[in-house]
Design a protein that fits this description.
The protein is of the alpha+beta class and 550 residues long. Helices cover 35% and strands 11% of the residues. It has 19 helices and 12 strands. The protein is globular, with a radius of gyration of 23 Å.
Length: 550
Amino acid sequence: MSHLPELSRRSLLKAIGLGATAVAAPSLLTACGEGSGGSVGNAGTDKVPWPTYQPFAGPAPDLPGTAEGVQPGYTKYPSNLVNAVKAKPGDGSKVKAVAITYGTPPKPAEQNRLWKAINEALGIDLELILVPDADFDAKMATLTAGDDLPDIISIGGGHRLPREQEFVSTKCADLSDLLSGDKIKEYPNLANLPPYTWEGMGRIKGRIFGIPLERPLPGWSMFINRDAFTAAGANDAAWSKDDFATAIKAMSKNKQYGMGANKANQFGLRQYHAGSFGLPNDWRVEGGKFVRSETLPEFKEALAFTRDLFAAGGYYPDTMSISVVDMKTYFYNGTLKSMTDGLAAFAPAVTSVKGAYAVDLALPYKAGGAGGTVFAGTGAFGYTVLKKAPTERIQMLLRVLDFLAAPFGTKEYELTHFGVEGTHFTRDADGTPKPTALWTGGENVVNLPIGYLAEAPRVLYFAGVDAESVKRLHAWETKVVPTAVRNPSTGLVSDTANRSRTTLDKALNDGINAIITGREPLESWEAVVKKWRADGGDKMAEEYAKEYAG
């Protein structure tokens, strides 16, 4: 996204559609019928072909991308935009859609010129149900447990629904006959989504049920205030864990803190520290068996290291109570010198700090002989599914999503990322979109997050972000992407994970948070892992191994 407004603590305090008060979340067994879905795995099924990849021949980048996953970079906006769709995709009907939001509620559609323009271009009456990140698990579980589902349902942002694959395969449209193989060429912008993002989404029962929301292969990263790290003597080009700890402690004084995290990401343990300790990305395949990262001795070492950083005051003391938005705000204003987040946070960070310091991404430190790697993401923020409906309506909804996935260098992309020229943006002398007060004041695609319904492959272009910042990000990707560690379970389905992963993950996360904050001793970790294995972790490993082999 480009020209994102600065976020504040108020960003998650309101919601539309489902309200702002958390409610009890019934099991999705209510929606699916207990046991009705059967196995959701792919092992032993006839798997439909992945969609044929048909890349968009767009403007030549200034900084080349690679097949490995380094994104193409653009230091200037294209001068000649093309149309990505031939005709208005919609049929004039009302379309209800639900998506995550990290912004404040938008003005109602009848008062929102951006929303009106999107509706006009899509040819539908789009009704959005927006669910704040902090409330997503509870509210989505409640929504999907009922029978009155929206037409379009977006699942992502690191959230997993209880019995997610069972819900999708039971309540949502099987898109295989419309999207597999060359059939996707009816939707050329969806065909432009790279193979890794479809594989990252995965099949269910051998079938394609969703549209992936593409993200760069580098996953979570540690954003840093480069000026502060340099002043602390930190050199991430070649640093050990001791060098890293020394720098963090040096920056953590006078109510400022070297490490930024939030209540949902376990102090950046998995997102940054685990790779620095040479751990696998969730799972490792050894002799055909799946071995979970948390069961390895190096994980306990990384846990101890993170605990020591917290005890030394390296983290914001109320990390367990702050949201993602709070974390970002504290990073922007200099309270935090780093934060762990996805690459999509780069442009908002650069524009929000307003030149106060250079935003950069840190290379991993090295702890032990195998350390110093970053984790690859799944290639997808999440995915979008469609409520079961007649084929003609599903085709119409796919045309709508195809429009929203129009790539960089097209007129449709400009509308869905910058709004209407003269209303939401003007142009600098070189053609760069420049936001108006209406856009920065709230009428934008943060508060109207249509990009969480469908999205083009990300490129390194950010209006309002200087060329040097883009070059820094491209240089970081060039260094880390070739050796980024992938998760072998990406795209695989485990019945145990479908039923119990939310509970199993919570048990691990609660144990991690309790140990890092000092509420439990480090030695309690063995008991946490033992219980996780007995409650389904070992079974999940067996099922992943079976599907991986098949």
